[in-house]
Design goal:
The complex is a heterodimer of chains A (568) and B (234).
Chain A: E1 2-8, H1 12-24, E2 30-34, E3 50-51, H2 63-73, H3 80-100, E4 114-115, E5 125-126, H4 132-146, E6 150-153, E7 155-162, E8 167-174, E9 180-190, H5 212-219, E10 224-225, E11 230-237, H6 247-250, E12 254-256, H7 264-267, H8 277-289, E13 294-295, E14 301-306, H9 312-318, H10 320-330, E15 339-348, E16 351-353, E17 365-367, E18 372-373, H11 386-406, H12 415-430, H13 437-451, H14 458-478, H15 490-514, H16 532-535, E19 538-543, E20 549-554
Parallel strand pairs in A: 1-2, 1-9, 2-6, 9-17, 16-18
Antiparallel strand pairs in A: 3-5, 4-5, 7-8, 8-9, 10-16, 10-19, 11-15, 12-14, 13-14, 14-15, 19-20
Helix pairs in contact in A: 1-4, 1-11, 2-3, 3-11, 5-15, 13-14, 13-15, 14-15
Chain B: E1 2-9, E2 12-19, H1 28-38, E3 57-60, E4 63-66, H2 72-75, E5 80-84, E6 91-93, E7 96-97, H3 101-108, H4 127-134, H5 144-148, H6 151-154, H7 161-171, H8 180-189, H9 200-204, H10 211-221
Parallel strand pairs in B: 1-5
Antiparallel strand pairs in B: 1-2, 3-4, 3-5, 6-7
Helix pairs in contact in B: 7-8, 7-10
Classes of the chains: A alpha+beta (568), B alpha+beta (234).
Chain lengths: 568, 234
Amino acid sequence: MKRDVLIVGAGGAGLYAALSAVKENKDLDVAVLTKVYPTRSHTGAAQGGINAALANVDPTDNEELHTFDTIKGSDYLADQEAVKYMCYEAPKIIRAMEHMGVPFSRLGNGKIAQRPFGGASKDRTCYSADKMGHVMLHTLYEQCIKEGVEFLNEWFMLNIVHDGKRAIGVTAINIATGEVELIRAKSIILATGGHSRIYWGYTSNALGCTGDGTAAALRAGLPLKDMEFLQFHPTGLRKSAILVSEAARGEGGHLKNALGERFMKKYAPEKMELGPRDLVSRSIMQEIREGRGFKDEEGREYVHLDLTHLGEEKIKERLPQIRELAIDFEGIDPIKEPIPIKPTAHYAMGGIHTNVKCETPIEGIYAAGEAQCVSVHGANRLGGNSLLDIVVFGNVAGKEAVRYAEGTDFADGGEEKLKEDIEFINELMNKESKETLGDMRNELGEIMFKHFGVFKNEKEMQEGYAKLKDLIERAHKNLGVEDKSKIFNLDLQSTLEFFNLLEIADVLAYASLQRKESRGSFYRDDYPKRDDENFLYHSMITKNPDGSFNYEKGEVDISLYEPAERKY
Amino acid sequence: MKLKIKRFLNNKSYFDEYEVDFRDDETILELLDRIRDKDRSLTYRSFCRSSICGTCTIKANNKTILACKSKVKDFIENDELVIEPVDKAKVIKDLVVDNSFLEEKIKKVNGWFVDEIDVTKENLQTPEELKKYDKQTDCILCGACFYECDALEYDKNFAGPFAFTKVYRFVFDSRDKMDKQQRIEIAKENLLYNCINCQKCAIVCPKGISSMMDIKMLQMKDKNPPFSDSFNFF
């Protein structure tokens, strides 16, 4: 199979890239390869909104303020020109999506409504009740169908193939048949999403957010950037870790400890519940650590997110999905009772290193979305900036990929890699499993949450890393595929996803141990202060053939704003 | 409780039976996950586990449901739970069915918004105008309405409840630039009037959308209804 532009992943970044690519050049074959049906992608679970300085609610808002808020929120690790690009594109791309049919919530005057959000100095977050990601994903999917984008649904990418200089294609399994193929492409866009599933059982993410593209990039010798930065969202449901949107606080929800105190007054006296996510998550965990949290019969510790004072009408109109989730998964109606919540692993700031044109060091290979690290989020992403990032850089990647494909032919080679992958799959299929995949995934989640969680320190991390290394070794030795059928073998897919998770957890743990400071989402008890003198850099990791890592320091663009202490 | 799961592979189907306990708040997806930990060949789709992605549509005691949203205790009857793949779609393996009809049907009804892109200004739309079609944008393409639809028993060319809900969503969106009657004509080519008002779509929709009502509203908005001539015979 051959396609001019092959996009891997059908979330917001992949779909926007596809749309931009077909619009840029109708004569090219543009295909989207996805391991699920496109509208299942995790973009659809984004709830609260998307940031753009439209100034519809607060006329004093502008792109410059959005840029500064994002940089400050990032704890000065974001690349400032890249952030500026994203924030100045924001109003344009929001209007473009409005003209694609996205049903934004509206103000009385008919303009797109905007709500306050964490870490933002103005009411800047455009929304569609609390289902922003869902309506964006479906709208982009409809537009892709309209423009004739081809979808390869339920294909699972195994590896990225290149010749050291330029892209050759990817190897992938057609899940329905079990056949492994080399799909040649002039340009490839990796839009494979995040990897918060390394915190299995402690994450808001869908079961498939396993960083397949990021792990494949690592295996292909591409650098991963800032992998130690993974954000805990303050409000996950107690039992399932399913997300309760920041919109709940944006609309006026209160966080309360077991004494009934709005404890955020101690940690962010000005912004209160609307402090940035890293700060609010730490505050919740601090309350729990100091014994002011709740504890249920099964030992789960949590605090309350109280919406009861907002009233039935506002909850039903602005936060209907959150109400539904609380009822379905906690058995609690937020109109009547506070919601039990705890921080949940939510978003990977780190990912595949690219420049602002979405280029990786290999020609013809691009990355966009959560899989990518430009970086516009630095050490901590602001709520509402993720949906923005995926469409802004999806758009860039689509256009750049077309430009490259127009000026080149298909590269030769790749047969070796295909053979290798087929052999690897056969081996895995023939191996008897000595351990249970489900148990091992839970074990991974336990290790990561306990040792690389909201609070970290050297001792905990070293212990955790030893456990992780042991788990990795056991998995490669003991894990096989029990389902021996070629047709729709999700056992095989889950096993491959688990290997990807292990590879990423390894990088995240390694990168975490190198950073002896606290910055944004990355917090160490033993180094509680930010240290710009020694650590204001992007960590860049590549993997050697023997499995060891190369660690380099990438420069951070601080050309616009001098790093300063963050206060909220 | 007795749990029966219908299995299918290589044209063979059979039931696996288990004797299991369940937690009071356990979802059917969590129960299936527990079974799969023991038998990893058991195959079903699942993804977001929070009823927003529409992946895990299956049948539990003959009702089409999202496995992640449905509690075991709400579906067992006589201490038994029977899990099967949904109807009206080709089974690929166990509980996994072919869902390619989703894209096909969207294409057939022109299920996309039509407008010129203008990055300098947005369309205006009042909250009241949004309300006319807002509920319909909740559709997650889980297909539950399609799998239950009685009109599809009679004619497979019926676009299906979700597809007409999409048409409704554009016809009643004040911003959409495609001619409303033209949208309705396309819906009619896809058998808009074949709906038999069984209401099953409304009953099974996990998002509480009534496609049947959407279909009625489209029929009422039709300026050229097919039965108008026949009234002359009476």
